[in-house]
Amino acid sequence: MAICLETRQVSKFFGGLIAVDKIDLEISEKSIYSIIGPNGAGKTTLFNCISGYYTPERGSILYFDQEVQGLSTNVIASIGVARTYQNIRLFKEMTAIENVLIGQQPHLRTNWVDAIVHTKRYFSEENETLEEGRRLLKFVGLEGMGDSLARNLPYGAQRRLEIARALANHPKLLLLDEPTAGMNPQETEVMKEFIHGLRDQLSLTIILIEHDMRVVMGISDRISVLDHGTKIAEGTPAEIQSNQRVIEAYLGAGTEALTEKYRRKKLQ
């Protein structure tokens, strides 16, 4: 299996704070890979380095063997890396379909001259993007909601819309930052199955930050655990559940990531 993403000794500093310290990851293509750890462990900072929001001070990030650290977010998006956010970042005064169309921006071929003159290429691309937007809304379960303002959609639907906007970029790698945050158990179960479907139906590689251990253990091929910016463990769900260092790090931090189910079982 090809390696989709590899990080080598990636480190990110904020003044005297080491947010991410010498992180090595190797993530196979078409896998679901989870990154877990207590709040402040460096998970989102690592995502921001991968997606171009931060440039690491040290180390390298390879996307299908191409070094991407230091590239702009636009360039990284254009080569097939898309993401969502812990806090939903939709354009809430725009409609659902308009949000998805924005996600297609890196791949549009027309320019401002086409838009002003209304060339044949402009109308052709406009029709293509609208059709693709409707297809993506249907794929994520929002068919018929294209004209609804994003702010008027239920919470779970907003999460799906954000994913639809990310998919509009035609990614090969999808970064999901706490996709089930704020969801009730039923919504969480639906999202878990949906993430499975994204990988299986679209052949995506998915990297997931998630605090719900039922989700993590239920869908991950491999898991890395961060604590205070360093990777303290990596392995299959079964290996992580029985790793004493992981148990101690979580229990010591008192993190909400451990559900009562896994506390009672002591991750065994």
UniProtKB/TrEMBL annotation:
Keywords carried by this UniProt record: ATP-binding, Nucleotide-binding, Transport
Boundaries of every ABC transporter domain copy: 5-253
Pfam families the UniProt entry points to: ABC_tran, BCA_ABC_TP_C
An annotated Gene Ontology molecular function: L-phenylalanine transmembrane transporter activity
One BP annotation, GO: L-isoleucine import across plasma membrane
Source species, domain of life: Bacteria
One GO cellular component term: plasma membrane
UniProt xrefs under InterPro entries: AAA+_ATPase, ABC_AA/LPS_Transport, ABC_transporter-like_ATP-bd, BCA_ABC_TP_C, P-loop_NTPase
UniProt name for this protein: Amino acid/amide ABC transporter ATP-binding protein 1, HAAT family
